[in-house]
Write a structure and sequence with these properties.
- The structure is a single chain.
- This protein has a single domain, classed as 2-Layer Sandwich (Alpha-Beta Plaits).
- It is built from 2 helices and 5 strands; from the N terminus they run βαβββαβ.
- Strands 1, 2, 3, 4 and 5 form a 5-stranded antiparallel sheet that branches.
- α1 crosses α2.
- The protein is globular.
C-alpha cells in the first residue's frame, strides 16, 4: 500500500437530508467501481459520509484509495457515473459541484509490542544530556 493515494470526492447537496439520502447510492457506485477496477482501487472503506460547512453548504463525501497515477479512473469513470446516477434518481447537485481531492495516503507507524520488562528495543527518554568529563 506504500505510495497509494487517498481520494475524497465531495458532491454538493441541497441540504443535510439530501446528502444523507445520497450516501447509499454513492456507496453502491464506489463499490461497483472498486469491483470493475480492482487492480486500481485499493480500498473503499468509509465510502460515504455527510459534511456540513459553517457557510450552510452540505456535501456527501466519498472516500477511497487508489494506486498513484491512476486518477483517470476517478476523473473518467467515477465522477461521470456519480452525476448520471444521482440525476437518474432525481437528486439535485447545486451548481453541478463535484470536487475531487487527491492526497498521499498516510503511513501508520509500526507499533512495537513489549511482552516483558526487558524485552524489545529501548528508547532513551528525552531530557538533560549527561556531559562526560574527561
Amino acid at each position: 500500500m506504500k505510495g497509494a493515494q487517498h481520494v475524497y470526492i465531495d458532491i454538493a447537496a441541497a441540504d443535510t437530508e439530501s446528502a444523507e439520502q445520497m450516501k447509499s447510492s454513492l456507496t453502491q457506485i464506489v463499490e461497483e467501481i472498486g469491483r470493475q477496477f480492482e487492480e486500481v482501487v485499493l480500498s473503499t472503506t468509509q465510502a460515504a459520509e455527510t459534511v456540513s460547512l459553517s457557510t450552510g453548504e452540505h456535501f456527501a463525501r466519498l472516500s477511497l484509495a487508489i494506486w498513484p497515477q491512476q486518477q483517470w479512473v476517478v476523473d473518467q469513470e467515477l465522477v461521470p457515473r456519480i452525476r448520471s446516477s444521482l440525476k437518474n434518481k432525481s437528486f439535485e447537485i447545486p451548481n453541478d459541484r463535484v470536487a475531487v481531492f487527491y492526497h498521499p495516503r498516510e503511513q501508520k507507524p509500526a507499533i512495537v509490542h513489549r511482552t516483558g520488562k526487558n524485552s524489545g528495543p529501548r528508547v532513551k527518554p528525552k531530557g538533560k544530556r549527561r556531559s562526560g568529563s574527561a
